[in-house]
Predict the structure.
Amino acid sequence: MSWASSMRAKYIFGIFLFFAIVIGVPTAIWLYEPASCFDGKLNQDEFSIDRGGPCRLLDERQLIPHATLWARTFKVEDGKYSGVVYIENPNQNAGALKTPYRFKIYDENNVLVAEKEGYMFIMPGVITPFFIGNIATGERNATRAFFEFAGPIVWERLNDRSSTLVVRNKEVTNVDTMPRVTAVIGNTGVKDIEDAEVVAVAFDSAGNAFAASSTLIPLIEGGESIVVSFTWPVQFERRVARVDVLPSVVPVE
């Protein structure tokens, strides 16, 4: 190759390199999409697309199965019932914020009496007591309850805020007239907790739940203790052998 041809080749290569840098690099930067939990791709050690790894959303297949321990309906007075469901979630730091549910109650002939639908949350690593109130049945009696999730559960990486709430000094009184359960709820943490629902369930000596009620604590400050009470309008038909008083709080990131 002559000297002139060599210079011409270097000149052309220089022009090509110049445009490659001036145009190619900005274009590559503009087209580059960093890995994220919303890119629709399986990357960054995710268990499935945009689930697991560093992502907030989790794949249910990587979790220990949750369980509905039991669902019951309770007569409050003629034509009015309530219901309670215990959902056990053994997964620490994995919960659900808005899960659709369906709760049905039936009479002694297995005929549907009433049905309620809505949304509930599932706390991480504990039993979530879910109370359903004001179930109207008219003149019909309810004897059996059925609970199901009405849609997929969206599992997320969440923390249990109820872990700092402790229950002390449970007491049952007035069982032959208008039964009353009282307890002290203490917040052992330093952070205030808002909208803590507390569910009380009475059990007989055979371990069967036969009465339930709930109350809402709008605010319990860090280090504070609050007395909560639950009442029923008619006397219990069974002897109380045990009372569960369980707080539930919407989990957070």
In short: Residues 3-31 form the longest helix (29 residues). Residues 161-253 form a domain with the Immunoglobulin-like fold (CATH 2.60.40.10). The mean pLDDT is 89. The two ends are 68 Å apart (CA to CA).
